[in-house]
Amino acid sequence: MTADLSKVVSDAQAGDEEAFRFLYRSLQPGLLRYLTALVGADAEDVASEAWLQISRDLPGFSGGEFRAWAVTIARNRAMDHLRRMRRRPSLPVPVQALAELASDADTAERASETIGTETALALIATLPPREAEAVLLRAVIGLDAGSAGRVLGRRAGAVRTAAHRGLRRLAVLLERQTLTEASVGVEGVPPPRAGGGPALRASHVEPADG
Amino acid sequence: MNPFRRADHADTERLLDSAHARADATLDQGHPVTPTETDATSPEVHLSAPNVPPVEPVAALLAAAAAPVRPGELAGEEAAVAAFRAARANPAAAVPQRPHRRRVTTGAVAWIGAVAATATAGAAFAAVTRDRAPDPVAPAPSRPSPSPHHSTSRSAEPGRSVAPVAPSPGAPSPVTTTPPASPAPVGQVHGLCRAWRAKKPEQREKALRTPAFQKLVTAAGGPAEVEAYCQRLVPETKPSEPAKGKPSPSAKAPQSPPRPGHPAGG
Description:
The complex is a heterodimer. By secondary structure, chain A is mainly α. Chain A is built from eleven helices and one strand; from the N terminus they run ααααααβααααα. The longest helix of chain B has 19 residues, at 9-27. Chain B folds into two domains: 8-65, no CATH class; 101-139 and 158-170 and 177-255, no CATH class. Chain B is elongated and about 80 Å long. Chain A: Keywords: Sigma factor, Transcription, Transcription regulation.
């Protein structure tokens, strides 16, 4: 896929609008999910900023892994955003992520059958930031460890370790969740739902629609 | 009952890779992937799908996180394409030659903006005062400028008003124009005076401490003399338009930093 992508990238650099669309469509979903873990509800705004810069700087892109280059831009925009907001880059993770998981899956069996994307992202976002970023870059955006390391300014081995720890933590979380579900019993008891919206966004109060 | 606890890094890598493999599979279906082609209506990932071993809750979680595109995730596509189009139409603004110089201080950006707004004398002045390599500056590429002379009549020497200010030095241009003649020091100070006057009064003093205005300070004999000096050198011919008058949007924008507490200023 990387070879195909580089052809598309050079087409886009030459001005092919359809090629640019393809890049957008292939990268944006993962990018948005990654940014959601970084900046919460402002992810779409940050993604827009990132695409603005990507489209401006695309002629200067000199090869290599395009997605890593683009994700680095997006991550820098996210960090700028967090600085502007004077927030620490804490991952906005509500406790109700687990409740959302419960609402998605009433029983232990079904918990291992289907998990909503939003819930999965919320759970990943409960990890320490380094681990969450490593997992998201690897699994959601699909970078290899080396490229993810370049995005994060860390070695590939450090990314592997962080991702490994993150997944282990997630496994424990899921197991605990399953046990809780089993012991409580779900017959007719609706799971506690703190907010109507998606888990990740519930922690952010957004007065104005961006 | 948690097999993952004993998993080693190789297992981790395999899990992480397989999570995205699914998303890649949807990508490789064709060049333009529209949201409707993928199963955008079902954000759930079913573990019965191939590539995902059903034994691992963590694998299920990753597969869900890497699920195909969901409705709304591509909402910004047209805006992004518009930005792409704009960058293509106006490559000068894209500054592709120096992507790492984006972090110019906002002060410098504001200053350059002010210069671009006010220095009608043209490229010679801009090229000299921007602290960049003073290579011959071609006019802005591909920007139609039907009459470059129309606004530069007052007090501009002949031959200095040929080229509009090109914000990107070295941009290739098929159009051949005469490169700006060697800038006369007097004309340069003229331009500096105008640029300085274009600033807001509260920013003028600070501006004189910047290297860009050092020649003006030197020529005037000191920061305190600049105002009188400029008044002698370039009398303000249009009293109806004071210097602090109408800063162009491009000059003004970087001077007002985003206020914290108003994240969505729309």
